[in-house]
Write the structure tokens for this entry.
Amino acid sequence: QVQLQESGPGLVKPSETLSLTCTVSGGSISSYTWSWIRQSAGKGPEWIGRIFSSGSTDYNPSLTSRVTMSLHTSNNQFYLELTSVTAADTAVYYCARDEGAFDIWGHGTVVIVS
Amino acid sequence: DIVMTQSPDSLAVSLGERATIKCKSSQSVLYSSNNKNYLAWYQQKPGQPPKLLIYWASTRESGVPDRFSGSGSGTDFTLTIGSLQAEDVAVYYCQQYYFNPQYSFGQGTKVE
């Protein structure tokens, strides 16, 4: 079955760029749409954006000026970059398979901006 | 912004009793062309990612016990846990996926 695993630095300095990787196993990245979602402590999840198998993207309007997503089909990976981070970007970051509803999630990776 | 508002923020339910969680969308998530409500429910336990329970407002995800049921249409939705089990203690979230690119989640309801 499809599994997702996030990876990347757990600590990012303010004003720098957060970069995360999601590795897809058990299935082809080319078959689905993929999203990044984050969750700050004690709050509901926040959708960041999604990337289609074609490479086209949609971003949350509140983050669109700072977000870039991409994918690498041969590696079965997709990526998140978030620029000019502040403490408000501290959260658990998840990647998920996007069927509209999110049916498969990674375990999440904690990113602290400090 | 499409705002999803859940009620209550928390509730305490005895084992074996029914739990009812409400979710209200600031705009309708019913797509008239296919008569589907673009609304999902998730369960999240501490230290875990959210788990999809219900999609299309009332369709249970594979493997989800039938004590979980979803209902509602348009802007008002309900998640019901028919007979609460100990393993159902968690935070529950609703999510709309009608408005692109503005998927949004509710603030969560903690079930104890």
